[in-house]
Amino acid sequence: MAEALALIDANNFYASCEQALDPALLGKPVVVLSNNDGCVVSRSSEARQLGIGMGKPYFQIAEQLERHGVVVRSSNYALYGDMSQRLMSSLEPFVSELEVYSIDEAFVRLPRTGHGDLSDWASELRSRIRHNLGLPIAIGLASSKVLAKLANHTAKGDHRHAGVFDLTRYSNHDPWLERTPVEEVWGVGRRLSRWCHMRGIRNALQLRDMASGELKAKAGVVGLRLQLELQGVSCLPLDDSPSAKQETCVSRSFSRAVCSEQELREAVASYVSRAAEKLRRQRQRAGRLTVFARTSPFSAGFYSQAASSTLTLASNDTAVLLQAALRLVPRIYRPHKRFAKAGVLLQELQPENQLQWHLLSQLSSEDLQRREALMQSIDRLNHRYGRGTVQWAACGLQPAWMMRREQLSHAATTRLSDLPLVWAKG
Question: 147, 187, 214, 332: which has the fewest C-beta neighbours closer than 10 Å?
Answer without folding.
Answer: 214
